Amino acid sequence: MLIYGVANNTYHKNENIGWSVPNYWDAVALALIVAIFAVLGWTAMQMATPYNVGQAIPISLSPRSLPVYAMRTVLRMFIALFCSLIFTFVFGAVAAKNKKAERIIIPLIDVLQSIPVLSFLSISVAGFILLFRGSLLGPECAAIFAIFTSQVWNMTLSFYQSVKSVPKDLREVTAIYQLSSWQKFWRLEVPYAMPGLLWNMMMSMSGSWFFVVASEAISVANQHINLPGIGSYIAVAIAHADKTAIYYAIGAMLIVILLYDQLLFRPLVQWSEKFKFDEVLDERISRSWVVNLFQRTRVLRQVSVLFYLLFDKFVNINYLLKRHSSFFQHHLRGRQDPGADKKKNLKYFFVKWKIIPLLGDLIVFALFVMLLFYLWHFLVDFVTWHDVARTFVLGSVTALRVLVLIFLCSLIWVPVGVWIGFRPRLTEFIQPIIQFLAAFPANLVFPIVALWIVKYKLDVNIWTSPLMVLGTQWYILFNVIAGASAIPEEVRLVSKNLGVKGFVKWRRLILPAIMPFFVTGAITAAGGAWNASILAEAINWGNIKLNAVGLGAYITHYTRVGNFPHVILGTAVMCLFVLVINRILWRPLYNLAIERFKVN
Amino acid sequence: MEKKPLIVVENVNKSFKKSDRQDHLVLNELNLSLYSGEIVALLGKSGSGKSTLLRIIGGLVKPTSGRVLHHDQELIGPAPGLAMVFQSFALMPWITVLQNVELGLEAQGVPKQERRNRALKAIDIVGLDGFESAYPKELSGGMRQRVGLARALVVDPEILLMDEPFSALDVLTADNLRGDLIDLWQSENTNIKNIVIVTHNIEEAVLLADRIIVFGESPKNIRAELKVDVAHPRNEDDAKFRKLVDHIYTLMTMPDSETIDFGYKIIDIGYRLPDVQASEITGFMDMMTEYKGAKVDLPELADEFTMGVDDLFPIIEALQILRFVHVSHGDIQLSQAGKLFADADILKRKKVFASHLIKHVPLARHIRRVLDERHGQRASEERFLRELEDYLSEDAAERVLETVIDWGRYAEVFAYDYNNGQLSLENPD
């Protein structure tokens, strides 16, 4: 036994629960907390008001109603984000730990993330309305679900990849000291995944603004439900061709994005610094005034100790300790209980004949066949071969659009990105701006384009296209900057020293170095463009209705009139296109870039 | 020995499935007992299976066959009473020193207050007082390993498993920690009855252990077992100490009986070539020139070149294969060809290297012959990889091919195009 000294080894830091006198900063911080909770609580109560289908919800275009609308939208987004987090923890972890589950979940997410958000909405809204009959909760849930589907996939994939890449020695530590799976999850896997997960949550939050309009102003199956929120406000403003209202909406969004960035994400980013695995201390730690504020408080910091203790209890819940698992008990007791041999034999029998895995495969296969059969049955009555052929043609048109646009964007943003990336101080300054641009919902610009198209009698098929990449082009710029700034200083100095310039410099130094980054950005941008095609190929402004030829417009059209077989057909074809293009174009390109051009 | 062993390793085999056709055998019918009151060192080159054995004893890796008994109980997973210290320290960077040390107690469900007291005591023992609230990032390597040690001590283990605990540290820090470990071992402040330490450092093994198990090449694992009857603290300049070190060097460089030939090494086509680059070989030969062909004591050489056994032995093996040196009884000496090579200029060196490569490395000879016969004088590396996989695991086959390609390119025996994986006889444009 270790001989433990008792009295002289008391530990003071954070443990002193004797309450101190609150200071001035406590008051400020407390006011901030109370205000946030009051607003959230009040807004949440509004969500469960009575509502019947068909009943019109008045949306006021007065700027005075915008704060309330903004709150409701933000609340929806955060509920969706929370659900995404839970989903991520469950499915990301299961996929990372169970090979069988991995083989199902990961391809499934691959497919799901290529399904346009609008399709999720059109399929789920009826069910949710039925579930919460007579309450606004039905449409609210449908909207939250749609937002959820625009946020969750990249988070889950990021978490899954992090958990899979937890260093082997840390895994061995948790094994040798016998942490239970539960403890291992909270003490090792979640912390390890945290920086990547947080980054993806911020991306998701930004990305989902784009879909807020579509999710709040539900216009499915000839039903029009406008849930109070910025999205509906924008939708109504578009329907009334009210330009001033659009400006108000943009202003409100700017403020909202700024607020949650300052109040939530900045502090979280600063907090997540400590989870970074780098061995060295980074001097450029991001700072947040909110964190500074709380660090100056006296009483509230002690409250945070309470939270810490609660988390400790949560991680160490008695029932989830390893000694409670049967295997461990049997080991501790040192004697096998009489039934164990029998159980072992039975288990052996199953394992030997691979019955359990076989059963699992069979069930999955059966489900898959049933789904196909059901889908086929559903489609065959309503959809002709002619429709199928048409969707493929439309899909090709949209695919062409996406590829041409990504190419054009690259021509512009690659040189710009490299120029910025070579200037570290400029990069630091410009990165938050691009982050904001990526968060800015591009659909607010749609009306302007619609007006131009009508005014100058432009070709709808060509001039609506740029709208698809308006929101996602930033990913290319983002990644190119990151790639250019990652080129080692020495390599650049050498090329300068050798007088490598112009075309040769691009071919030999810059392009190879940024290639992996660029491909990553292009993949993200292309994925986003497909999803955005649903909104960008069919734009409205007051009485102006512009429909381009494309798969996005096709899905939007059939969603509005409520023709589900066609929605499903369109969605399925879009999925197919995205998956096939990913397989034959992007993934090989990415592998090539990684293999050939990676600078260690 | 009438004392009852704490751990008995019985007929343990461990193979890793690398390809469908074949398993790679790491441990072969291994038997070992650990007794109370001894420090046991598992000494060997990397890849000799010593770390795998440690993990099997710790319950982290399941043996393919055979079993491990812990107090007569079959071990079926990590068990209480066994703690481990890792080469990379393996600390969670996001929690403080104190929380890291508490980890094992959390798993046992020890109440918070007791957890804290015991952790503080363990931190005290390893001499990290005052750093309880520091994060691992803030600490030096030596201090991090002290945290790793405290984390092991706090669960009050009976057997302490250490996986190359000092090899990531600089010489002075490692020395310092070794001394502290022995002090801890002798202080009886702990309940530790046995320490198993994996190392590739011969001096370290002799300095710490009461018993040294020398690991050889894979199929036959344990090459020798030595007792060290020297009281602590041991002096590295002591004659007995030096003699033991010399003896182990001899043991570790002794070729397996079936491949022995006047201090050289004869190999077949599927031989696992050591992971050594041509540049390392030439560099080593450059250093050898200063001995002018005289016999040199290996420990002395290692000391002179400041090379660990893990760096030194693969190079020596490569030189034995190429017949540039003889090795016998822990001494190394340049051969006739070795002297020729060492004194030559760059171009001449390549010629000598090329002729020895073709003559003594069957794989290189085979590749060259295939290329000579081929129309167009090209062949894909895949082809040779498949052939090698008849003898080696997928992983090892890749490494061996990589090595032989590196040697062949240096000797200009053949060329290689990274982009398409083609071997050829033509010079690159």
Describe, in short, the structure shown.
Chain A has 600 residues and is mainly α. Chain A contains 24 helices and four strands. In chain A, 75% of the residues lie in helices and 3% in strands.
Shape estimate of chain A? globular
* Percentage beta strand of chain A: under 5%
- What does the average pLDDT of chain A come to? 79
Kindly estimate the percentage of residues of chain B that lie in beta strands according to DSSP.
15-25%
Can you count the beta strands of chain B? 18
Which superfamily, in CATH terms, is the homologous superfamily of the largest domain in chain B? P-loop containing nucleotide triphosphate hydrolases
The number of domains of chain B is: 2
Which second-level CATH architecture of the largest domain in chain A applies?
A: Orthogonal Bundle
CATH topology of the largest domain in chain B: Rossmann fold
How many helices of chain B? The count is 15
Output the strand order for the largest sheet of chain B: 6-7-8-3-9-10
Q: Specify the CATH homologous superfamily of the largest domain in chain A.
A: MetI-like
Spell out the blueprint of helices and strands.
The complex is a heterodimer of chains A (600) and B (429).
Chain A: H1 24-46, H2 66-97, H3 99-112, H4 117-131, H5 137-164, H6 168-176, H7 181-216, E1 217-220, E2 223-226, H8 230-239, H9 243-272, H10 289-296, H11 299-315, H12 326-333, H13 338-352, H14 355-382, H15 385-421, H16 424-439, H17 446-456, H18 460-463, H19 466-470, H20 473-485, H21 489-497, H22 502-536, E3 538-541, E4 544-547, H23 551-561, H24 564-597
Antiparallel strand pairs in A: 1-2, 3-4
Helix pairs in contact in A: 1-2, 1-10, 2-3, 2-5, 2-7, 2-9, 4-5, 5-7, 7-8, 7-9, 7-16, 8-9, 15-20, 15-22, 15-24, 16-20, 20-22, 22-23, 22-24, 23-24
Chain B: E1 7-17, E2 23-34, E3 38-43, H1 50-57, E4 65-70, E5 73-74, E6 82-85, H2 97-108, H3 112-125, H4 141-153, E7 159-163, H5 171-187, E8 194-199, H6 202-208, E9 211-215, E10 222-227, H7 239-253, E11 260-261, E12 264-265, H8 278-288, E13 296-297, H9 298-304, H10 309-321, E14 325-328, E15 331-334, H11 336-343, H12 346-360, H13 362-373, E16 378-380, H14 381-388, H15 394-411, E17 415-417, E18 422-424
Parallel strand pairs in B: 3-8, 3-9, 6-7, 7-8
Antiparallel strand pairs in B: 1-2, 1-4, 4-5, 9-10, 11-12, 13-15, 14-15, 16-18, 17-18
Helix pairs in contact in B: 2-3, 2-4, 3-4, 6-7, 11-12, 12-13, 12-15, 14-15
